[in-house]
Amino acid sequence: MSESTFSTIDYIRSMLAITAFFLIFLMAAPVILFFLVITLGKATNYIMETIAPLMVRPVLWFSGIRFNIERHAGTIPCPSVFIINHSSTLDVLTLLALGLPRIRFVAKWEFQYNPLFFLLGRLTGQIFIRRNQSEKAIAQLQEACKRIKEQQISVMMAPEGSRKHPGIIGPFKKGPFRMAMDLGYPVVPVYFEGSRELSPGGTLLTKSGIVTAHIHEPVDVSNWRLDDLEEHMTGIRRKYLQWAKADKEE
Q1: Do the beta carbons of residue 153 and residue 76 sit within 8 Å?
Q2: Cα 215 from Cα 205, distance rounded (Å)
Q3: HSE of 246 in the Cβ direction (CA atoms, 13 Å)?
Q4: Structural domain boundaries in the chain
Q5: Its pTM surpasses 0.85
Q6: Residue 139: is its pLDDT beyond 60?
């Protein structure tokens, strides 16, 4: 999809959504920072589960996007390692809109170059890694494991690493799955349907439409071993390819 496919209405909606995002963020940030400081960070779970979804819902509305959540599992285990398909600029909004319990995000190191993102990210315990330096990324994830385990929090990661990858579902990296094994957490696949078609990345523009987050059955990793890790990763990626194929055919 190229930018030329966006209509005048899409441009207007997108500009309104971008404006709304920054205004809401600028107004909410001082309040969030205040509560984080006076509670010594204990308000983080409430902010991630309740405040963040409320902040992004108006942005999605201005974009003309209806966001749905479909659970294909009876109970979502907590804590877990949640994984997502990462192929759209909209992922920033849809991740926050999920409002998952006790969740923290693994994000690229460069997000911290924005002082406000740096402050909010650090105070809320988000995890920043140098994705282009695999050894440092692994070391940073291993360091984060101890805190994650102690606090019994869930983690959200994108096994593709970057949204800029070949094909609909890019190659999977080992990081999320190694972390799940180290923590003893199940892996919960989340598939975003429709986001790539509305906003494929490389632009803040988006079409109006429907995005559905499919939360699938958790995958038990208790019997996984390092020598069969690739096989398990391939099996999970194959499911994402099937979901993407079904999405495309609809």
Answers
A1: no
A2: 26
A3: 10
A4: 3-249
A5: yes
A6: yes
